[in-house]
From TrEMBL:
Pfam families, A to Z: Hydrolase
Protein name, as recorded: Haloacid dehalogenase
First and last residue of the signal peptide: none
Source organism, top-level taxon: Bacteria
SUPFAM superfamilies: HAD-like
């Protein structure tokens, strides 16, 4: 079966986590909720419904969930034309594809947001597929997005690596039975990522690319 390199997008390939923090903060503020940006930051990576639950609790007024999500979408959408890719993101995907890895994205983004993210990454020529929020019934930290990405890659978990930047990514990858690599670019502490299951941690995509020959990817290429 193919070797699969599975990637989260926000905070992993595109520098958007703090944009999400600010726009979720504003959406919540407009609805009368005072939520610390630190708490929002640690919820980034969850799907919208799970993020709101994580921040406001199960006992919240669920009737306003749709308004909160719509407000965040509208605020975040103002950045779609200028989302910044992380340094080396596209180059990393191209290098892995050249080494025979099948590239699939696993993200909670969908629709116009996903199109904007893919445009920022600028590597559609090597992306074999995308497991988006539209494709699964349950988002990270459930394994569903990673399992869907494995299906798209036609790969066995033992032949896959999942790269992400949040504890939710690491937990989803571990639950799906794949090797997990974390990046610090999303702003989450190394210790938290390692506790959640990261087997290796790098600063960002550029650092991973520069150390690719000593990484888990290279180990798997050598059959280790």
């Amino acid at each position: 079966m193919a070797r699969a390199a599975l990637f989260d997008v926000d905070g992993t390939l595109v520098d958007t986590n703090h944009l999400h923090v600010v726009t979720w903060w504003e959406a919540l503020r407009q609805a009368g909720h005072d939520v610390a940006m630190h708490d929002i930051h640690h919820a980034i990576g969850l799907g919208s419904d799970d993020l709101v639950t994580h921040l406001l609790g199960e006992d919240r007024d669920r009737d306003e969930d749709g308004e909160l999500t719509a407000a965040h979408t509208a605020l975040y959408g103002t950045y779609f034309e200028r989302l910044p890719p992380l340094e080396g993101a596209g180059d990393l995907l191209h290098e892995l594809a050249a080494r025979g890895w099948r590239i699939v994205l696993a993200t909670s983004a969908g629709g116009p947001e996903l199109k904007a993210l893919r445009r920022a990454i600028d590597a559609d020529d090597v992306i074999a597929g995308v497991a988006s929020a539209d494709d699964v019934s349950e988002g990270k930290p459930a394994p569903d997005p990673v399992q869907r990405a494995l299906e798209l890659a036609e790969a066995d978990p033992a032949q896959a690596v999942f790269v992400g930047d949040t504890v939710w990514d690491m937990k989803a990858g571990r639950a799906a039975g794949v090797r997990t690599v974390a990046l610090l670019a999303g702003g989450i502490a190394r210790a938290d990522l390692e506790e959640a299951g990261a087997l290796a941690v790098y600063g960002d995509t550029a650092e991973l690319l520069s150390q690719l020959d000593t990484s888990i990817f290279a180990q798997m290429e050598r059959g280790e």
